[in-house]
Batch of 3 targets.
Target 1
Amino acid sequence: KQYEFILTDRPDPAVGLITLNRPKALNALSSPLFLELNEALLAFDADDAIGAIVLTGSERAFAAGADIKEMKDKQFADAYKSRFLENWTTLTALRKPVIAAVSGYALGGGCELALSTDIILASPTATFGQPEINIGTIPGGGGSQRLAHAIGKSRTMELVLSGRNFSAQEAERWGVVSRVVGEGEGQVVKEAIDLARTIASKSQIAVQAAKEAVNAAFEQPLYEGLRTERRLFHMTFATKDQKEGMGAFAEKRKPTFTHE
Ligand code: HXC
């Protein structure tokens, strides 16, 4: 399907790629862009052949935030009644893993969008930040919560209250991103696609159960999270993929997962 503000591609039969594509506005996340993004994410999530999704922007900007020009005259009543930003939860409800490949600016909503994905890979040029405080507002796409979980209270407070940006290297040191990849144009997207391909080669049911279990660590108290993990682990014994995976190990051959 052709979209106006994003591009979709299939760099591998099992990998869906979404590229934010509003270059003149540094991929500012306008409402029309976000509707398209959600539509594309849901379409890939529903496609049985896809095992993982990569989300990226341009070399200059992953996304420079929510669209300030679109928001600036908004009134409280509009924001409240239209449930402004509520559709940001679509991404977090997907079953399939989403990998963000971040180059350039990931600011405000752009940083929050990256934080909403499952894995972030960054190029050395990536710049993260929650600069909302500089324009008289605060993060609204989960930044204050997800950063606090990822990097602790003091750092989150400093960043969110001062609005200062942080580098790819800081993001890596603090564990916001899983790694900074080598230099070179397109390198981060290439690495993200490679990782997506690796994930897609596993049992999809096991991958989705593993994602659910890890997410439980952020959404549930420890006792509940441990129980969730154990139940999901037990559940895998009802799948053909577990029989195939363990059987293949015992027979010293490679498994062929059928996602059943
Ligand atoms: C709308 C934006 C934009 C944004 C950039 N542009 N960011 N438009 N919303 N968030 C537009 C600029 O207006 C400009 O359009 C064009 O993109 C290029 O940007 P420049 O500023 O000319 O580029 P540069 O000088 O290189 O500076 C890059 C920048 C700066 C440092 C990233 O653009 C910037 O500070 N942007 C805003 C960052 C920000 O505050 N983000 C948080 C937004 S609030 P024209 O037409 O002039 O060429 C937010 C709330 C989150 O995200 C709530 C939950 C979603």
Target 2
Amino acid sequence: DTGGYEHYLLKEINEQPETVARTLRGRIDDRFHIAHLGGLNLTPHETRAFRRVKIIGCGSAYYSGQIGAQLIEELARIPADAEPASEFRYRNPVVEHDTLYVAISQSGETYDTLAAVQELKRKGGRVLGIVNTVGSAIARECDGGIYLHAGPEVSVASTKAFTSTAVAFALLALHFGRVHDLSPADGRRICEGLRRLPEQIREILGREEEIAALARKYADRPSMMFVGRVRGYPVAREGAQKLKEVSYVHAEAYPASELKHGPLALIGPDMPTVAVVPDDELLDKNLTTLGEIRARGGQVLMVGHRMAEAKLADDCIVVPKNEVELDPILLTIPLQLFAYHAAVALGRDVDKPRNLAKSVTVE
Ligand code: BG6
């Protein structure tokens, strides 16, 4: 039941204020500014012993893992990176005793991710699962983890599971950070930022008509570029992924810093760019990139925080500002709506895109 919405995808996008609140429920401790994550099965001693975090998942789960890796590095200062589970399992990975492995899966049944977890377990790796579906195969294989509590996700393109996974990583990074050197003041800043998310998501959803108009404006282009730097980069990747999945428009995501090392050759009137521009220490660098794109005749749709900079782009979606570490979660939401409305404008099968399955349980 789509609950009055035209598609499950739109329903699930609109559920995000509640689903993010459910991922957070009962997990924030305002006394010590820590996260309560009852299912990790890690002692403080074990938590301190990990020297590295390796995150694996497929598709959107992998991109949310990239946000997760950045959160863990920023808040806990533990080296962390994300890799597609499908690649990881085929490259005979070196499994280290002081690395914590984290597997992400909405369904908990993705075969590539499950096979990677089984390989890790066979080699003695310690694996946490960030999973939506309780009791699923991946959840059962892991040593512990975090359930998203986002409710069933029906549309093939992942939306609410993506944001809830990023929120779960913020909690995990807060937890690791406060076991290491994250100050109580910074812990409090993150706790308060997390609590603001549902209301801010609601605010973005309230701007659906404005975003839909932009989607209709750009939907007839054969191709779109998505760029972002550091915190904006996984957002750009997910934005491109959503657009190609549901609208079949070719979309490429690049780190904004890499544009001039190749893809700038593609920029021109036929290739508009969606630029993810958070108000962080890289703002000026990102604004320079916008100028470089426009100087080559490329149109820019900027998704960011500062209205004053809107004149540097052809179009602009301004989202509410949270803490810099949490901003990627909010910046993702308009790109979901953009992809949805592009797909509707093009008459696509929004909830069941051609050639895709919700959960790929085969090799
Ligand atoms: C893909 C789906 O095949 O699997 C994506 O089309 C999804 O939407 C990916 O992100 C991973 O799925 P899961 O269930 O492991 O998170």
Target 3
Amino acid sequence: MTTTDSAGAAPSQGGERPLGTEDALREHFDATIARDQRIEPRDWMPEGYRKTLVRQIAQHAHSEIIGMQPEGEWITKAPSLRRKAILFAKVQDEAGHGLYLYSAAETLGADRADLTRRLIEGRQKYSSIFNYPTESFADVGVIGWFVDGAAICNQVPLCRSSYGPYARAMVRICKEESFHQRQGYELLLTMMRGTEAQRAMVQDAVDRWWWPSLMMFGPPDDASPNSAQSMAWKIKRHSNDELRQRFVDMTVPQADKLGVTLPDPELRWNEQRGRHDFGTPDWAELKRVITGDGPCNDQRMERRRTAHEEGAWVREAATAHAARRSERARKGTAA
Ligand code: FAQ
């Protein structure tokens, strides 16, 4: 819903303040957030709100694009044509998610080429989870189950984010992530019905991906500098710890059904809380991975840089083609 008139000015607040003054605009913005309505691109917004959104959406877009790499490595090694086709489709979906998100960032005045440059120069982040290696085909299943599962927990509430274009992009992304999670779980169910060696591969992948998946939700609430303001603006709807807890509660029964053990000796049902207790992730590890010192950071960034450089001719050709088409259209109109 658009909250201002077509000229971008806020409606009068009972005639108390002149239209368009910063105070009146801010009041209108605050009231829109308080009413749980959406902020749209042409609405006035505080600079901090815009910057926070560009930061989060850009990091999210970069994560989707870099996130193609760990599973992408297995496309040529998938054990059957069916698995290859499924994985191909999933990895392509992630590229699509990145593109919707860059478009959402552009509605805030960001420039996609500039965001990509910032990523490549190491000035913007992407999710820690994609800095871990995929050692076996079971990792493909576990990424679908854990990583897409965590993405769903985190992103379903973002469908109600206060910024319209971000919230709407999330609706489609979440539908696709649900499919991704199911394909991962179905792959694991198949492997668990297979040989002893296959079951061991699944358990090994679970052991390696569990803690990094919990870290995807970000630092604990008391060490999360952005959460309070992002929640006040209703960009984020729940805290990092709340979403992490939801993920654990959702995943434990799925692990039981699958027949794997989650690698946390402190994990148990807490009758009083009606939720699971679980151990503390290694926050020092999260910090190291975010700051560039994870197992695959260098490899991921190197591939991203190479892909960008090797794609330069495609961007140039597409730009030249678009210019020629619009020139032809202009001449056609003039004729
Ligand atoms: N990794 O104050 P907070 C996917 C940074 S998409 C790296 O708590 P905030 C799909 C944070 O940016 C996965 N950095 O920050 C897929 C901030 O840094 P800054 C991506 C992290 O923003 C599946 C600083 O630490 N999803 O999986 C991480 O309020 C399979 C302080 O943290 C999204 O981006 C981390 N894990 O909350 C694709 C979802 N955690 O900028 C392929 C949208 C924190 O101040 C295959 N994003 N940081 O320098 C969000 O919900 C939020 O941005 C959080 C972080 C929750 C990630």
